[in-house]
Design a protein that fits this description.
It contains 14 helices and 17 strands. The protein has about 425 residues and is an alpha/beta fold. The longest helix has 22 residues. Bound molecules: pyridoxal-5'-phosphate (PLP). The site of pyridoxal-5'-phosphate (PLP) has 14 residues, from helix 5.
């Protein structure tokens, strides 16, 4: 096989990439990143790419930020990692205290892990055990939405929407009660009906507040989200808000739950929690949830769950510094300003190109739905054309994702949308 460069040859001989067909990976001209500067990734050939997917929706304030780097280095001089199982660390305590100030969960307690999916697994287990601890074992089912995505571990796949890549694992998963996702305008009524019908057996409702991201960037009205959350809480059903993708400013508020005026019982955090610098996730639980686990030592009320690197000190230091930077640099204000501009430009793109079926945007979380191509996948081909033009994007099927860093400038928003328009024309010329 011919390789574009030696790095790709070395890559395929030792790495198995997720969500990637390795038999064709080398031909798809992958970027091999060597370093990054601000909003740009730089590859081994020295080419620069604007990081329009924020390194899988995690990066918030740009790469290699001197203050973030310094916070991590300073922590490294003290402690890289110490376990949180049965013990504590200064760095983890300080991060949890800082998170508590912004997370809209009542008097929150944080169970730390490293990936978003782990935060979801923890949330499901906590919700299930909560009702057992309170002597209500009948409440054991989870209400989940179609088109949801909560991660790739089996519990998270169980509550995610069924799709071509999860179907194969159906027998390994548990079956939630499922109601339609946000693309159905009647989703909220149907969710409320299901809550009424199953209120005696439901342990929890899990949803991505306001934006169902990986399922295709479907956006709900905030009032609908708030109505469904209230219905669940009034029926004694715990609400798990999966804010792994929507949290930390992505939607123009600290959390999408804030937009809906909701206070979930459990919240899953990940991705932007460290600004995209180090792996960290957390399951925030309300005081009421946490109290249901208090009991005798080694007793059955204990939450017997923990991940080795949960609360890692370097990640904790990054999380704490990141929260301060988001405030100091007025990042949420920038998200709202750039979102207004992006909305205007993306709507213009939809008017101008017959190949754009729909644009959906909340804060700096956007999807551009393309018309199906007659050859190959339109999303893949347009994304590849963007990359050739120096803008790094990844599609979700035929939905081109617009997910720039939250400190993106006006010029960069204009340039990304202009590049997308040119990339659509490139594919048009090759024959859609
Ligand atoms: C809403 C949501 N939950 C959970 C996850 C899983 O996070 P991770 O990939 O860190 O396991 C994702 C990832 O995209 C997500 O969008």
């Amino acid at each position: 096989m011919e390789f574009v460069n030696d790095w790709i040859a070395r890559d395929v001989s030792s790495i198995w990439h997720g969500f990637t067909q390795m038999s064709v990976y080398p031909e798809q001209e992958p970027i091999i990143v060597e370093r990054a500067e601000g909003h740009y990734l730089v590859d081994v050939e020295g080419r620069r790419y604007f990081d329009a997917v924020s390194s899988l929706w995690a990066n918030t304030i740009g790469h290699c930020d001197p203050e973030m780097n310094e916070a991590i280095i300073e922590q490294l001089r003290k402690l890289a990692h110490a376990t949180l199982l049965g013990n504590g660390s200064v760095a983890a305590i300080e991060a949890a205290e800082a998170l508590k100030e912004v997370v809209p969960v009542e008097d929150a307690r944080f169970v730390f892990a490293s990936d978003g999916a782990s935060a979801v697994e923890q949330a499901i287990k906590i919700a299930y055990q909560f009702h057992r601890n309170l002597g209500e074992p009948r409440r054991k089912r989870i209400l989940a939405l179609t088109d949801a995505y909560h991660g790739d571990t089996l519990g998270a796949v169980s509550v995610g929407g069924r799709t071509f890549y999860t179907e194969i694992f159906s027998e390994l998963c548990f079956e939630p009660i499922r109601t339609p996702g946000y693309r159905d305008p009647g989703w909220a009524e149907k969710a409320v009906e299901a809550i009424d019908k199953h209120c005696q057996e439901l342990a929890a409702l899990i949803l991505e507040p306001v934006v169902q991201a990986a399922g295709g960037m479907w956006i709900a009205r905030e009032g609908d989200v708030s109505r469904v959350i209230s219905a669940a809480q009034e029926a004694g059903v715990l609400v798990i808000a999966d804010e792994v993708a929507t949290g930390f400013g992505r939607c123009g508020a600290w959390f999408a739950s804030d937009l809906a005026g909701a206070r979930p019982d459990i919240m899953c955090l990940g991705k932007g929690i460290t600004g995209g610098y180090l792996p960290m996730s957390a399951t925030a639980c309300s005081r009421r949830v946490w109290e249901a686990f208090l009991g005798e030592d080694l007793g059955p009320r204990t939450f017997y769950h923990g991940h080795t690197y949960g609360g890692n000190a370097l990640a904790a230091a990054a999380a704490k510094r990141h929260l301060a930077i988001v405030r100091e640099r007025a990042v949420l204000e920038n998200v709202r300003r750039q979102s207004d501009l992006a909305g205007k430009l993306l709507r213009g793109l939809a008017e101008q190109s017959a190949r754009v079926r729909d644009v959906r945007l909340k804060g700096l979380m956007g999807g551009i739905e393309l018309a199906q191509a007659s050859k190959g996948s339109a999303g893949r081909r347009v994304a590849a054309a963007c990359v050739r033009r120096g803008v790094f994007v990844r599609p979700l099927g035929d939905v081109l994702v617009f997910m720039p860093p939250l400190t993106v400038t006006e010029e960069e928003v204009e340039s990304v949308v202009a590049t997308m328009a040119q990339a659509i024309e490139d594919v048009e010329r090759e024959g859609w």
